[in-house]
Amino acid sequence: MTAVPLATAPGTGRRPYPVRRLLDGQPRTILFDAAKCIGCRQCVEACKDWNDLPRGDYFHLNSATWLAMAPPVLEGQASVWGRQSCMHCEYPVCAAVCPVEAIVKYEEGPVVIDQRTCIGCEYCIYACPWHVISKDDVSGKAAKCTMCSDRLAVGQEPFCVRACPVDALDFGLAAAMRTEAEARATRSGARLYGALAAGGTHVLQVLTHSLAEHGLPRVSTRRYPRHHIPLRVKLGGVLTLTGGPAGKWRAIKNAALRPWRLRYRYWPR
Amino acid sequence: MAVASPSLAALDALCPARRRTPLPGGYMGKLLHVDLTSGRCRDLGLPETPLLRQLWGGQALATYLLLHLLPLDATPFGPENVIVMMTGPVAGTGLTPGGTKLTAVYLSPATERTLGRAATSGFWAMALKAAGYDGIVVSGAAGRPTYLYVDERGAALRDASFVWGRGTRETEDRLRAAVGHPDARVACIGPAGEHLVRAAMLVNDYNHTAAHGLGAVMGAKKLKAVVARGTRRPPIRDKARLIDAGERWRRTLKSRTYTVEKRLRSVGHGEDWGAITRQNWRGTIITDQNEGFDQNRVTLRPCFQCPRLCPWDAEIGEGPYKGTVVHFNAGSEWMDTFYNLGLKGNAVLYLSERINDLGIECSHYADGAGLAFEAWEKGLLGPDRTDGLRLEWGDVAAVERLLERCARREGWLGNLLADGPKQLAAALGGEAGQWVVHTKGGTPAQHEWRPQIGNMLRELVASGGMKPQGGGSARPAPDLAYREHWGPLAADQPDGWAWSHLLSEEYRQACGMMGACWFALQAHEPDALNSMVDALAATTGWDVTLDEALDAGLRSTILQGLFGTQRGWRAEDDWTDVGPRFLEPIPDGKYQGFTIARWLPDIVQEYYRLSGRHETSGRPYRATLERLGLDEFMDWSVPE
């Protein structure tokens, strides 16, 4: 992996989190087509299989379930399904609020929490507009979908995409997926979700029903959407032993070296 | 170990809680022993690794244990009958197609002398492994309705009186609610099991059924259901290799057999060769049986991590059953079941849902009720013995009412339908014995198999008339080309079919033993068998080969036969204890006049000889047992 300073990437402006390159720098997108989805949850179990997460409790997102399908009923008992997982924002607010810069945006699309760096402060959990980040009870750290960045690094598609038995999931270069998603949405009179939300994401969803029926929130189109980290969480991050001395040192160092990033955490616009 | 006097006492020695040999990958390492009489549940280990390497899991390992546990004088419905339920190493890994299989064995209530074998897919096997168990041994009988709840903290028997008498759908929903975990997986029996209908099924995960009387044995034990959940996953020896093998396996399933479009028009499996069962096997011609199917809303509902998409749900979209939601697995025997009673269209799907909710193996009802309707038509059965019910072909209400009577053993006819078509024919007397379809007192899977030599052979030699697990393939597996050249498998000539059946039985048994479903094994595709064997090797860490897999499959078949041998079954039963209608020339259509009866018993005898067994007694030759490492059963062999 090569660290690429954002300032050198034309047109993107400087970013309040680390940006790195995984493979070739070409952005990718996951395409979910609700019109094809049969709600079998093979993507959900595949996510657990690749990441060695515990089975069970797969109706809702948690530290052992990084991908869930709404509504929370047994397979076959609904006809409209929605994909609930990290949307891999182009401008990830979770990464922007991380005081230790444990969340990395990869040029290829994935937004990944570095488990070694995370101090478990929970800022990201509250900042995420889709509420897809969970805290692991055992490790105390934040967990979510990685877009299988470890597979992507060797040119493979995310494991959930590979598992889908009805081709409701697709994966490819962002521009091609966008074109494909728009064509599908136009053909079937469906709506496209994820293209504009939070300034654009790397998960596009072709939806046949209302957002509520797919179990998805309406998210502002602005980059780094307005968020609310409760004061007790903010104070907890600053004043308690969260992250230990090493974590505190990393946070102080980051604040000192890149003070302009602080406003995303403590004084959001 | 001597097996002359099997008893439950052998369990602890076979399944030591502390193992001496390392546990191969894929296994959870624990069996659960549930004694319903005492209400005690306890954890056991798995057999030692050399035995696991021979038998893997599934039917073979379960049957081996049963051979050591079940007294020779046990009766199907007595508390001494034992049920052994077993998954396999690949089940629940999530990384192969069809890794969903659990097989249960017990003394068959349909024949009272052969192995009962109930195999099921769906999600339940995965949930049992997630709870930390590879299998369950059920002994004794409970004094009142009971269900078993299993999770990582252990197992407990709980009161099931609130679901006793309920259908399988409602039971599943209520038990899931009762345990408070929406991800719990339920396998249960319906009213038919409670009333000891000899072919009552176990039904799990809505769309899945385990046939051949397991439901009745559970009903006799007052065990309504097994509910499982957990968070554990099988340890895998070489995950990257398993993913690769699974990917290769998936590629062999690329050409999708089951699609929504097919479900919206298909009359079922018989469409593949153009014959269905009609009017108690007296007609085969497909006409407008699919009327109205295209108005339904169909959802494919695959098993755990399997891309083959066999199971499906439908919401009926027209007619008197509009709005009814129905749940099915891959096959379509239930459709032929009701074609066999003169029905068509969505009434067939409606009644299929009813039979699965009541929990009766459909062919059992198809052949029993078919015989009753024919007897009515021919004046052998009158309203005095049907409690006034008129048995006119195609009368939905009559078929449904009779179905309910069968499930609850109501009246003279309901009671005999519950026992089976062979018993009904004997009670009807007259010529009814000529009109009946059965195999050794059980019933063949309900399809019009009679034009097909391989499938007929499979149905005839299946243990005790149960639905067979595998065999009968008409297409040689390309992966076996390195050692086998069989054929020509002409549709109207017997040559090669016995060998083809034996080989396909071997690899399909092997597939089940590793905890995978042979519906996901399309052996006629290149790499299907090799990827399957590689998946087992990657999961367990064994250097297993395809040759070894075929031997393992044969081992399972031989154990199945030994179980019957010990209880009085003989190979000649396969062609002598058969309902005559099953061997009659086909009455109409493009196969009119064809019958495999002209090659009986030669083709069945050829199969037994090729499998290393005596052609009339069915006992294995000594050399067969020696070659397969089953010397401990030598008392039941014959010299070559």
Structure description:
The complex is a heterodimer of chains A (269) and B (640). With 269 residues, chain A is of the alpha+beta class. Chain A contains 9 helices and 12 strands. Chain A has one domain: Alpha-Beta Plaits. The longest helix of chain A has 15 residues, at 174-188. The two termini of chain A are 33 Å apart. Mean pLDDT of chain A is 91; it is low at 1-11. Chain B has a 6-stranded mixed β-sheet. Chain B has 3 domains: 8-228, 4-Layer Sandwich (Aldehyde Ferredoxin Oxidoreductase,  A, domain 1); 260-427, Aldehyde Ferredoxin Oxidoreductase Protein, subunit A, domain 2, CATH 1.10.569; 453-636, Aldehyde Ferredoxin Oxidoreductase Protein, subunit A, domain 3 (Orthogonal Bundle).
Largest sheet of chain A: 4 strands, mixed
**Beta-strand fraction estimate of chain A:** 15-25%
- What's the arrangement of strands in the largest beta sheet of chain B? 2-1-6-3-4-5
Q: Which descriptor suits the 3D outline of chain B? A: globular
**Total beta strands of chain B:** 15
Strand content of chain B: 5-15%
Give the averaged pLDDT of chain A, no decimals: 91
Tell me the total number of β-strands of chain A. 12
